[in-house]
Amino acid sequence: MEFLFLLATIGLILGLKFMGDPAKAVLGNAVAAISVVIALIGVTITSYSPENGAGTFNIVLVVCLLAAGGIIGRVLAVRVPMTGMPQLVAMLNGFGGLAAVVIALIEGIAHPIGDDMRMNGGLLLLSAVFGGVAFTGSLVAHSKLEGKKLPKAKRGHILAARILLWAMVVLFAAYMLAPGPIMPFTTLLILIAVLSLIYGALFTLPIGGADMPVLICFLVALHGIVALLAGLFFNDTVMLIGGVLVGATGSLLTIAMSKAMNRSLGSVLKGVIKRDTGGSEREQDIRPISAPETASLLAFSKQVAIIPGYGMAVSQAQGVCQEMQVMLERMGATVHYIIHPVAGRMPGHMNVLLAEANVDYDLIMAMEDVNDVMDRYDAVLVIGANDVVNPAAETDPNSSIHGMPIIRAYASKQVIVLKRGMATGYSGEMNLLFDRANCRLLFGDARSSLRTIIDELKRI
Amino acid sequence: MEFTYHITAIDGLFILAMSLLLGFEVIKNVPAVLHTPLMSGSNAISGIILFGGLIQLMSTPPERIWVIVFASIAVLLGAMNISGGFFVTHRMLSMFQVNKKKVPAKK
After folding, report:
1. Which residues span the domain enclosing B93?
2. pLDDT, tens digit, 9 for 90 and up, residues A55-67
3. Which of A5, A36, A362 to mutate to test the interface with B (most CBs of B within 10 A)?
4. Domain for residue B78, yes or no?
5. Residues 118-177 (A) with a CB less than 8 A from some CB of B
6. Contacts of A18 in chain B (CB under 8 A)
7. Do residue B43 and residue A131 have CB atoms under 8 angstroms apart?
């Protein structure tokens, strides 16, 4: 049986390693999944203890639950449209978080922990806290991604969240220093679990849509830490290593994402945005363009680049976009896609969408690779992206996004921005790109605009 | 509760330190295309928290109804997290895979 666990642990590590390599990623996912199943069977067998009164009932129950969970999970995974991916990941992460809280509560209540078992008690408290935050945090993230109306975050929320956080820290420290005198462990555990559930919701509330990639990674990392703590508590190496791996992946992605936005992790998590747009508020000089005009412009372009953003996901324009790309290619143009690291609501969100629309992997450029040669593009189509092409990030030191790396769309010969209206991007910053002489705006829903362009192209 | 193997606190810390280093080593330098699958895959792995629920379920007599009920909820949620996570990751990755096969065909 120990051998099974060893196998599972190695499998998890290798699986995750393979998942970082495009050629082996499918294999990696399968290896990781099989390892988890092996470990699952192993844990079920080794923890079966008839001497504690467990019997056939328990075995049947466990098998049924695992099968039911497996089937529900599969249905969810198959049903979800690719644009709903961030929501699903957030929801699944929430499930795991809730499971962690429940497990910690059961453990603390059913098997009383004496005051001499401070380490174990501490582990339980911590995993209840992290699990609770991961649960409600993921739920709020899920609702935000679904576009549900949530109460606007006020200063009071942020303050309350901070007080809750300190309350939890103090309670935890008090327990670790001198367990017992304040309240019995069970009460403390329940109290801290409730506090963490409230805290999770409060702390996620002010975090804005564009910061979702960072938030989701952070919540996944939290969940990993919970598994790590539970692994220590239950003496289970597979859980411990799995938790560490997830924690590490989550943290690395969190850091990578906040770097790509040039914001410190702290400021993202506090939901703080610099609002001092000092002096840059003014009327903008905008040159609109019609869809037929855009089509003829594209027809005469040799090098075309498409910069997709969250707006493309919203209007589900990826399929039409690919159609247009194929069409332009047939007319002799080269079409590239340029993706900003934080475009969309989840790391790599745009890559997934384009892959769904059968866009060739080779056509997708990373921002760093093309930024210095943007002038070679005759036309750049910005579809539903805003802040990631705003030159204010480079030129206006007062801008809240100043310093964030952007795609230098302005450096190309002609920029056409597909926009629904004059609303600003998430940052609330005015887009200085629109002022540039080589920028024109095509108003309307991205999908129908692209549709019109295709029809026009057919006529040419 | 009985386990087939035991680790002491210091063993645990050793494993923790080693796997932390390992964890960072394993997943640095991941290309952006794989960020989403990597995240949803690791999210699936984190569902192994349900082992805790399994251990509780397998060592509790059926008479302790509340423990059974709540541990069952935890196990069910964890199982959903694991299977949903892996299946969705697979779905995403197979989309990338299809595209890669197409590229050589075109050239």
Report:
1. 30-106
2. 888 888 999 999 9
3. A36
4. yes
5. 119, 131
6. none
7. no
Tokens of residue A4, six digits: 């099974």
The C-alpha atoms of residue A58 and residue A109 are separated, in whole angstroms, by: 20
Number of domains observed in the structure of chain B: 1
Backbone angles phi, psi at A366, to 5 degrees: -90, 150
3-state secondary structure of A170: helix
Per the annotation, the verdict on A115 as an active-site residue is no
Sheet holding A334-339, edge to edge: A364-366, A334-339, A303-308, A379-383, A415-419, A439-443
Asked if A363 has any chain B CB less than 8 Å from its own CB, the reply is no
Contacts of residue A199, defined as CB under 8 A and 6 or more positions apart, other chains included, come to A132, A133, A136, A161, A164, A165, A168
**Inter-chain contact B39–A346, Cβ cutoff 8 Å?**
yes
Alpha-helical (H) ranges within A84-154 are 85-110, 118-146
CB B55 to CB A234 under 8 A?
yes
pTM of this structure:
0.79
Beta pairing, strands A334-339 & A303-308 = parallel
User: B94 lies in a domain?
Assistant: yes
Q: Which two tokens stand for residue B40?
A: 């949803």
Q: Which residue of B has its CA nearest to A233?
A: B52
% of chain A with per-residue pLDDT over 70: 90
In a domain, B18, yes or no: no
Nearest chain B residue to A47 by CA distance is B55
Give the residue-averaged pLDDT of A404-414: 87
Of A239, A262, A50, A212, the residue nearest B50 (C-alpha): A239
Per residue in A83-125, pLDDT (tens digit) is 778 888 899 999 999 999 999 999 888 877 776 777 888 888 9
Task: Confirm if A346 and A257 have CB atoms less than 8 A apart.
Answer: no
The CB density around residue A204, as the number of other CB atoms within 10 Å, is 27
The pLDDT confidence band at residue A277, using thresholds 50, 70 and 90, is very low
ipTM of this predicted structure: 0.82
To the nearest 10 degrees (0 to 180), the angle between helices B65-106 and B50-58 is: 140
Domains of chain A: 80-270 (no CATH), 291-459 (3.40.50.1220)
Q: Do A103 and B52 touch (CB under 8 A)?
A: yes
Q: DSSP string of A296-353?
A: HHHHT-SEEEEEE-HHHHHTT-HHHHHHHHHHHHHTT-EEEEEE-TT-SSSTTHHHHH
Q: Nearest CA of chain B to the CA of A281: how many Å?
A: 35
Supply angle C-alpha A441, A342, A196, rounded to 5: 130
Query: Given A387, A396, A435, A455, which residue is catalytic?
Result: A387
User: What are the chain B neighbours of A44 within 8 Å (beta carbons)?
Assistant: 54, 58
Give a yes or no: residue B48 inside a domain.
Answer: yes
Total number of residues shown for chain B: 107
* Separation between Cα atoms, residue B74 and residue A343, nearest integer Å: 34
The reply to whether B69 touches chain A by the CB within 8 Å rule is no
How many residues in chain A? 460
